[in-house]
From TrEMBL:
Listed name of the protein: histidine kinase
Entry annotated with the keyword Kinase: yes
Organism domain of life: Bacteria
InterPro entries the record matches: HATPase_C_sf, HATPase_dom, His_kinase_dom, HisK_dim/P_dom, HisK_dim/P_sf, Sensor_HK_Regulatory, Sig_transdc_His_kin-like_C
Source organism of this protein record: Parabacteroides distasonis
Length: 491
């Protein structure tokens, strides 16, 4: 049952009770847009900004089910118990009727399930923040499109069939009329409509497809975009009900020369970062978007756990991608921070062994070979990073057998390190390209494809050399030499 109050009393309620209430609260306008959170809500989820709250829009989120949203539109109060328990009520005033909505977390004891729910909500918020930052840096937008919502779309609420993550153009702002905007701003010469992609996937029951189209900027010029789509929520007939994908800004031919000249004035770190992010970011982001949407619609606990597990795995993959890309960018732009000291390689090898041991499977033996006790003047952290990357690569492609690692002293010139495995080996046609960026021997294996490139870049910058000997089906040995005394340009 909804509450009817005078508008002055309502304003007093907002200014006094709402912000000082010890329970977490949120307030929304009549369209369901988030207006503000109180201090208790910020504190409960450790939020830095109100837009990091997972329910940023009442009618366009992954938390509320369609049935709850329907009840709310009818003017009914609702209670949601996952991922945390909260209540949403419409607020009415005498003068204007519906004035907005309030959301309140319910008072609960500190049960174990409450702590788990709070942790889950925090993880989802972290995923959104991380995804938003990556999308903004990469000129990329991710989206989900619902055919079921589109069938009931009208001019007032026609943006409900979309959920956008990131921005590519002001006309794609989620608060605008998405359907009308996309159907009217494409370039007149384009024969394909934006929604041609969705219709083709649904009608031909394709697993994925992509097209290009144009959108007009505020200054009247046009930019080219590539939109990809992948079918989800497929029914028994093979027809998808949801499509997820990405929208990538493409360079126009007439602007390519000017943009190329302008890029020379940009730092190599930024240009490399953007190139790498747009190249590899789509897979984990699409997975995060897709499984997050499905999580809000799934009631089966076992399936929810699977979706949460997939979200976590792709969060890890996304973090690895960002960290590796930044490291690679620093290498190529020669902005590495060095910290050289006299180190004992044997101590480093033991530390690396402790790092890798928990990650090996039961069918693989990790063996640290006997190595001499020598001294090496090098960057301890960079040496450990190289060894960890090489060991991670060996673990990824070795299903059974042994992985040996160690070093040999070539005093007084250098120390030669090695990581040898009995894994899959490297095909001859890829052996000469193994240290190139984004090369993966198996596209179904997890990883960024940057690890070996980072190893080569660091070894080269440290005045050393790196190489590989491999035979397909028998295994690989990665070796690298580092000078006992580094070049003067580094130290």
């Amino acid at each position: 049952m909804s509450t009817v109050i005078d508008s002055n009393i309502f304003n007093t309620l907002v200014s006094n009770t709402f912000y000082s209430c010890p329970l977490g609260g949120a307030i929304y306008d009549t369209e369901g847009n988030l207006i503000d959170l109180n201090k208790a809500m910020f504190a409960h989820f450790s939020l830095a900004d109100k837009h990091d709250f997972i329910i940023e829009h009442l009618f366009n989120n992954i938390v509320l089910t369609d049935s709850l949203k329907s009840s709310l539109r009818k003017g009914d109060a609702i209670i949601c118990e996952e991922p945390v328990t909260f209540k949403v009520e419409p607020i009415y005033t005498d003068e204007q009727g519906l004035s907005g909505y309030t959301l309140w977390l319910t008072q609960q004891g500190e049960k174990e399930t409450d702590r788990e729910n709070k942790l889950l909500m925090g993880q989802l918020n972290e995923s959104r923040i991380l995804m938003r930052q990556a999308l903004e840096d990469g000129k990329l937008a991710a989206y989900s499109f619902s055919f079921d919502r589109f069938s009931t779309c009208d001019k007032k609420h026609c943006n409900r069939c979309f959920q956008f993550y990131g921005t590519t153009n002001t006309l794609l702002d989620k608060n605008r009329f998405i359907c009308r905007a996309l159907s009217s701003v494409r370039k007149p010469e384009d024969s394909l409509d934006f929604f041609y992609l969705f219709n083709k996937i649904r009608d031909e029951k394709l697993s994925s497809h992509n097209v290009t189209f144009h959108l007009r900027n505020q200054d009247g010029t046009y930019k080219m975009y590539e939109i990809s789509g992948k079918s989800m929520d497929i029914d028994e007939s093979g027809t998808p009900h949801v499509i997820i994908g990405s929208i990538i800004e493409k360079e126009n031919d007439e602007l390519a020369i000017a943009d190329h000249q302008k890029s020379k004035d940009l730092s190599l770190l930024k240009s490399t970062f953007l190139a790498n992010m747009t190249h590899e970011i789509r897979t984990p982001l699409n997975a995060i978007v897709g499984f997050s949407d499905m999580l809000g619609l799934e009631d089966d606990p076992e399936m929810r756990e699977q979706y949460i597990s997939m979200i976590k795995e792709n969060n890890t993959a996304l973090l690895e991608l960002i960290n590796d890309t930044l490291e690679m960018s620093r290498i190529e732009s020669n902005t590495i921070n060095w910290s050289y000291e006299d180190v004992n390689p044997l101590a480093i090898m033991h530390d690396v062994y402790e790092y890798a041991s928990p990650r090996i499977s039961e069918n693989v033996r990790l063996i640290l070979d006997d190595s001499p006790n020598v001294s090496l003047h090098t960057d301890r952290h960079k040496l450990m990073l190289i060894l960890k990357k090489l060991l991670s690569n060996a673990l990824r492609y070795t299903e059974k057998g042994e992985i040996h690692f160690g070093y040999q002293s070539l005093y007084p010139v250098s120390v030669q390190f090695y990581v040898s495995d009995t894994g899959n080996g490297i095909p001859k046609d890829k052996l000469g390209h193994i240290f190139e960026r984004f090369l993966q021997l198996n596209e179904f294996e997890p990883g960024t494809g940057l690890g070996l490139s980072i190893c080569k870049g660091l070894v080269t910058a440290m005045g050393g050399t790196i190489w590989v000997n491999s035979e397909e089906g028998k295994g690989s040995t990665f070796s690298f030499k580092l000078p006992i005394t580094p070049p003067d340009t580094i130290s």
